[in-house]
Every structure is written in structure tokens, then in C-alpha cells.
Amino acid sequence: MAPVIIDFSAPNGHKWKQTVGLFINNEFVESKDASTLAVVNPATEEEIAPVALANEKDLDDTLQVASDPFPSPDWRRLSGNYRGKLMFHLVDLTKNNARSLAAAEPLNTGTAYSIALEGDIEDAIKIVRYYAGFTDKSFGQVNGTGSNELAYILKEPIGVCGSIVPWNIPLNVAITKLALALRCATLIF
């Protein structure tokens, strides 16, 4: 059985617990067949951690959970104002854990620690702040069509969406996709 959380240590001595499992149905789990994939530091070509490797059964389970009609409607029923407050809390958590995030990024991407801390982490914070500021600003658009008629545009979720995060800037790509989904009250499995 592969662990879903490991003790992790960066070359600068910074230590933390790192999740390495698949995130399915609001929890980190190992893959159904316990397969893992070695994450390799591109700068040194050394393995830094084994992470869970999803297979077809894992994908099927994820799609099933995501396809259930709002199995946990709490998030989408929260007011935009409150969702924004929670997202601003995510900004605070990111700031408080900036050293851990910045220590992990160079191992995963080969970038310098200072660039990760002052660039990638700061950008991630800006991204979440940006979308958090829009959580209470989703309104339908009314278009004038003439007398006795009304046309409006209302944006709403259309269904299950898959998201692939590349190796080169995983934090910012992931946070952009997640922040936008959270801003729109979309459930994330």
C-alpha cells in the first residue's frame, strides 16, 4: 500500500508533510492498483517522490463522483461573499506556507528557490485574490430586445471537466484552474 502523505525535506533543510495521493471525492487516496510514478527533479534527474498514478478505474470513480448531481451542494449554496471570504483565507494559508511551496517548486520544476518564492508563489496569491474578488459579482446580463420581450444571459456550470496540470509551472496552472472553479461555486473532486 503506497502512502498518500509522506515526510518531505528540501535541500535547504525545510521539512513538511506532502500529499502524494490522488484527490478523489474530497480525499487523498492511492490508486486502485497502487501504481506510482516517480517525480524527478529536472535539474538533478534524481527522484524526489513517488506519486499515485491514476488508472482507468480511478478515472471512472472520479467521473462517477463528479457526475452525481451535486452530492455535496453546500459549496454552491454558499453566498458569493462567503466563498470569497474562504478564498481570501486560502490566500492567507498560501502566504503562511510560502516557504514550503517555494521549496517544493524548484525540486519539481528546476526553477530557483528565489524565483519560486518571489514569482510563482506571489503569482498564485494574486490569482486567488483576483478570482476571490469576483465571487459576489456573478450576475446575469439583460439584453434589450424590444417591447414585451426579455432576453438574458445566465452563466451556469455545464458538467464534469477534466484538468491536466503540466510539470513546468504546476502551482500556477493548478491554482488558476481551481480558483476559477471555486469562484464559480463549482465542486472540485
From TrEMBL:
Keywords, comma-separated and alphabetical: NAD
Domain Aldehyde dehydrogenase: start-end pairs: 28-184
A GO molecular-function annotation: aldehyde dehydrogenase (NAD+) activity
Any Pfam family the entry gives: Aldedh
Record GO biological process: polyamine catabolic process
InterPro entries linked to this entry: Aldehyde_DH_dom
PANTHER family documented for this protein: 2-AMINOMUCONIC SEMIALDEHYDE DEHYDROGENASE
Family to which the UniProt record says this protein belongs: Belongs to the aldehyde dehydrogenase family.
The protein's name in its UniProt record: Putative aldehyde dehydrogenase-like protein
Species of provenance: Fusarium oxysporum f. sp. rapae
Origin organism lineage: Eukaryota, Fungi, Dikarya, Ascomycota, Pezizomycotina
